[in-house]
Amino acid sequence: MRTDITPTWDGVSRLCFRGRVNVMLYRVEGIVIRSMDYGEGNKIVTLLTKTNGKAGVLIRGAKKVKSKHSSLAQPFTYGEFVYFRSSGLGTLNHGEIIESHHVLREKLDLAAYASYAAELTDRSLQDDEATGFHFEQLKACLTSLGEGKDAQIVIHLYEMRILDLSGYSPELDECVSCGNVVGPFKLSPHAGGILCSRCAGKDPGAILLGDGAYKLLRLFRRMDMRRLGTIQVKPETKAELKVCMRKLMDTHLGLQLKSRNFLDQLDKLI
C-alpha cells in the first residue's frame, strides 16, 4: 500500500493512504488537563495544546505499571505528544515528558488548586477555541504553583485571565455607570465592573472594595501569568479577593466544578 506523507510547518503531517480516509499525524506540545480510564488498560487524556486547541487522545496501555506511556497520562503533565487522528479521538504514537509537575500530584493542597485550574480550563474552552496564549497561561499557572508561590493568589490571577479570555474582563478603571474615577468603589459583577459611591445604589449586591483588594484586582486585570512574582497579601485582603473572584466567576461563567467544591472543603479543614 502506498503512503504519501506531506509535512506542514505547524507540526502536522497528512498521511494519505490510497483507498482510505486521510490520517493526520500531529506533533504538539501539550498539557494534560483531564485523564480518564478507558477499557481494561487504556486511558483517554484531554490535552491543551500549544498549536491545536484542545485534543482528546487515547493512550493504549497507560494503566499498566510497566507501560512506557503511563506517565504521559498523568494530570498536569507537560510534554510533547505525537498522535494519529482521522476524526474524533486521536491515538498516541509517541511522547516525551518536558515537565512532569509531580509535586502538584504529591501534595494535597497543590493537587486541589492544580485540579481546579485544569478543570476550569477544560470547561471554559471549546475544543477549537483554545489558543497558544491559553496554553502559555495554564503552563505559567502550574509552574507558579510548583514553585511554591501563594496558591490562592496564583489561582485568582488565573481566574482573571480566564474571564478576560472568555470576554468577561471587569472594568476596574472607572465607574461603569457614570465614568467617575474617584473612589471608594464597589464591585458589581452584574454591571461588569466597579461602581462609585454615587452609583453604588444601583446594585444592592455590589461588594465594597478595600484598597488592597482593589489594587490587586486592577493588577490582575493587566498581568500576564508569566510575569507573576512573589506577592505578600494579608489574610483579610485574600478573603476579599476570594469573594470578588467567586462572584465574577459565578456571574459570568456559571460553571459547577467538582474541583472547586473540593477546594472549598479543603480550605475549611486548613
From TrEMBL:
The lineage of its organism: Bacteria, Bacillati, Bacillota, Bacilli, Bacillales. InterPro entries: ARFGAP/RecO (IPR037278), DNA_rep/recomb_RecO_N (IPR022572), NA-bd_OB-fold (IPR012340), RecO (IPR003717), RecO_C (IPR042242). This is DNA repair protein RecO. Belongs to the RecO family. HAMAP family: RecO (MF_00201). Residues 24-100 form the DNA replication/recombination mediator RecO N-terminal domain. Keywords: DNA damage, DNA recombination, DNA repair. PANTHER family: DNA REPAIR PROTEIN RECO. It comes from the Bacteria. Involved in DNA repair and RecF pathway recombination. One of its GO terms (biological process) is DNA recombination. It comes from Paenibacillus prosopidis. GO terms for cellular component: bacterial nucleoid.
